[in-house]
Write a structure and sequence with these properties.
- With 243 residues, this protein is α/β, with parallel strands linked by helices.
- The chain has two domains: 128 residues, NAD(P)-binding Rossmann-like Domain (Rossmann fold); 105 residues, Dihydrodipicolinate Reductase, domain 2 (2-Layer Sandwich), CATH 3.30.360.10.
- Strands 2-1-3-4-5-10 form a six-stranded parallel beta sheet, with helices on both faces. It has a four-stranded mixed beta sheet with strand order 7-6-8-9, covered by helices on one side.
Length: 243
């Protein structure tokens, strides 16, 4: 698989490293202000900046190239409307398969809190001081998963569940220090007990590997997808333990 990468930052480097390790070819990596890429690729992965994503999507549409977006703080709905299903488009605030697992477990915690009186749900995250968006895209993903999974696919409340609102779900962010380390926590807390799950990212390589998985998944598809679609089959055997 030939992969093109928009961006030359830490995430872009992690995607490149993971792609080469998996036996794929990185055709190009383009930094800010670079000319339009030359040569066909099977998939393009965007690790650039929010302001550049729309322009990169327009290139992907013109080149009929599946497009994976790993940029946070963007309008995903507007991008999907722009693409209109003409190419494969996958948007993910975090490519880590472990984070996809955590999102599923966060939903389990939220459902348990909804049927067990006295629990307060929360999401916490910490990143380096220079990270612009807060809460992070991953924190929003986890929070939305806790909220949305309290209703079934028909939009009715889980049996015995009290409605949980966004105002009742506390989300907090810390921006301090430097380096690649970051963490996300989801939990439920009561006067008598608490349950907490924590994911710590010690490098961006897990995200790089996940992005390559997403690229391979998207290379033969059209329409809108998320990392949840990529992770579904990979985590099926793991989550069977919850039954």
């Amino acid at each position: 698989m030939r992969i093109g990468i928009f961006g030359r930052g830490r995430l872009a480097q992690a995607v490149s490293t993971a792609a080469v390790a998996a036996g794929h070819e990185v055709a190009w990596m383009l930094g800010r202000g670079a000319c339009a890429p030359l040569g066909r690729v099977d998939v393009a992965v965007d690790c650039s900046l929010p302001a550049a994503v729309t322009e990169h999507l327009d290139w992907a549409l013109a080149a009929e190239t599946p497009f994976v977006v790993g940029v946070t703080d963007i309008d995903a709905r507007a991008l999907a409307e722009r693409a209109q299903g003409r190419i494969g488009l996958l948007i993910a605030p975090n490519f880590s398969l472990s984070v996809a697992l955590m999102a599923r477990l966060a939903a389990v915690l939220a459902r348990y809190a909804s049927v067990t009186p006295g629990f307060d749900p929360y999401v916490m995250e910490k990143h380096h001081a220079k990270k612009v968006d807060a809460p992070s895209g991953t924190a929003k993903l986890l929070a939305n998963r806790m909220l949305s999974q309290l209703s079934n696919k028909h939009g009715t409340a889980t049996p015995g569940a009290a409605a949980l609102t966004a105002e009742e779900l506390c989300v907090s962010s810390v921006r301090a220090g430097s380096g690649q380390h970051s963490w996300h926590v989801v939990g439920i807390d009561s006067a008598d007990e608490a349950i907490e799950l924590r994911h710590e990212a010690r490098s961006l390589l897990p995200c790089g590997r996940g992005a390559v998985m997403a690229a391979a998944f998207l290379s033969v598809k059209r329409g809108l997808f998320t990392m949840d679609d990529v992770a579904r089959s990979a985590l099926e055997g793991v989550l069977g333990a919850l039954e």
